[in-house]
């Protein structure tokens, strides 16, 4: 009989619950309500009877919960159905939950300690106060096991089988007994109170800066491509971040004898020089004019200055800022590239009749 009732309670609870995820730790207070069958100790002389229980509890960590629970049962006596026997009590129950990831239902063990009060009627004939009534209270201890699982977002179902030792040594029906053992089979609901705390997800990790977006030395080349970190300001930097020597070869900018006007071939060369200067905005150059060895020093000095000025004017009129140009400076015949006699016609040398752009630090 007892096994049949227990099996029925457990199977009914499992049949009511869909598959859900294993319980997560929820530290809200909850209320419980349960109903079941109290299988009375045969020595009481009472029928088995249903019982009701109400409680309140809380998970103290993912595996342990504590409940305070009120219970009530009102069985009849076997021998005299007109006699009343009722019992109510309070217990503090500690449950150990055995959780497993991905499992819908999780078993638990329960241990409890409480106080049970009994009200027992008995035949006091021939006393005029018959039936008499005994009211007495005593300690009780409980041990058992159960299964618990979620049946909704905010509700758990609990099925439980427990043995309660009732330390009642004042029974009128069986005065020789010092305690009674009852079996409790129940199904109940656990309903958390209030809204569940929402745990904010951890902030996403801060992504490390991309080297392509950084230029620590400020040379205009990102850290990924910069093979020479720490380049000094004012240097001319190549696409790999390393300083590069820049030379502007104007050896082809030559002048006709005794002339300071730019020839067409010189204009083409100067156009390329403008492009180089635009490509390297930090580059500064000196505009320097020279002559061959024909003529007096004074005349050649003036002629070299006019040639330097012609190149200077061309550069500034084509977008090169004057702040990047030193000069125009004339050096006359003092810096020939080819050594020649100072007499005609040998002194006529086109290589020496030139204007140069000399890179400056």
UniProtKB/TrEMBL annotation:
It is a multi-pass membrane protein. SUPFAM superfamilies: OmpA-like, OMPA-like, TSP type-3 repeat. The keyword tRNA-binding does not apply. It holds the Pfam family OmpA. Keywords: Cell outer membrane, Ion transport, Membrane, Porin, Signal, Transmembrane, Transmembrane beta strand, Transport. Residues 347-361 have a biased composition (Basic and acidic residues). The keyword Lyase does not apply. This is Outer membrane porin F. Residues 242-361 form the OmpA-like domain. Residues 326-361 are annotated as: Disordered. PANTHER family: LIPOPROTEIN YIAD-RELATED, STATOR ELEMENT OF FLAGELLAR MOTOR COMPLEX. It is found in: Cell outer membrane. It comes from the Bacteria. It comes from Novilysobacter luteus. Residues 1-22 form the signal peptide.
């Amino acid at each position: 009989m007892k096994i049949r009732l227990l099996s029925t309670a457990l199977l009914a609870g499992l049949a009511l619950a869909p598959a859900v995820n294993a319980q997560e730790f929820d530290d809200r207070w909850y209320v419980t309500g349960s109903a079941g069958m109290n299988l009375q100790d045969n020595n009481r002389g009472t029928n088995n009877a249903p019982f009701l229980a109400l409680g309140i509890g809380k998970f103290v960590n993912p595996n342990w919960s504590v409940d305070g629970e009120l219970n009530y049962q009102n069985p009849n006596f076997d021998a005299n159905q007109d006699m009343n026997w009722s019992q109510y009590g309070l217990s503090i129950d500690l449950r150990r939950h055995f959780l497993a990831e991905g499992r819908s239902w999780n078993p638990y063990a329960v241990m409890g300690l409480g106080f049970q009060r009994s009200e027992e009627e008995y035949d006091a004939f021939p006393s005029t106060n018959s039936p008499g009534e005994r009211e007495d209270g005593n300690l009780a201890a409980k041990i058992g096991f159960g299964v618990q699982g979620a049946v909704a977002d905010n509700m758990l179902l609990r099925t439980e089988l427990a043995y309660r030792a009732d330390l009642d040594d004042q029974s009128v029906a069986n005065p020789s007994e010092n305690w009674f053992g009852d079996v409790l089979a129940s199904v109940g609901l656990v309903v958390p109170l209030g809204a569940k705390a929402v745990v904010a997800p951890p902030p996403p990790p801060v992504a490390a800066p991309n080297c392509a977006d950084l230029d620590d030395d400020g040379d205009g080349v990102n850290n990924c491509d910069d093979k020479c970190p720490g380049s000094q300001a004012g240097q001319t930097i190549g696409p790999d971040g390393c300083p590069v020597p820049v030379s502007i070869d104007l050896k082809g900018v030559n002048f006709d004898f005794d002339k300071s006007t730019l020839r067409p071939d010189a204009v083409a060369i100067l156009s390329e020089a403008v492009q180089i200067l635009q490509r390297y905005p930090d580059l500064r150059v000196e505009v320097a004019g020279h002559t061959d060895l024909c003529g007096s020093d004074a005349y050649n000095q003036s002629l070299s200055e006019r040639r330097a000025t012609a190149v200077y004017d061309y550069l500034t009129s084509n977008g090169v800022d004057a702040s990047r140009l030193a000069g125009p400076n004339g050096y006359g015949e003092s810096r020939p590239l080819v050594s020649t006699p100072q007499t005609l016609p040998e002194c006529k040398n086109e290589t020496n009749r030139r204007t140069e752009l000399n890179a400056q630090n």
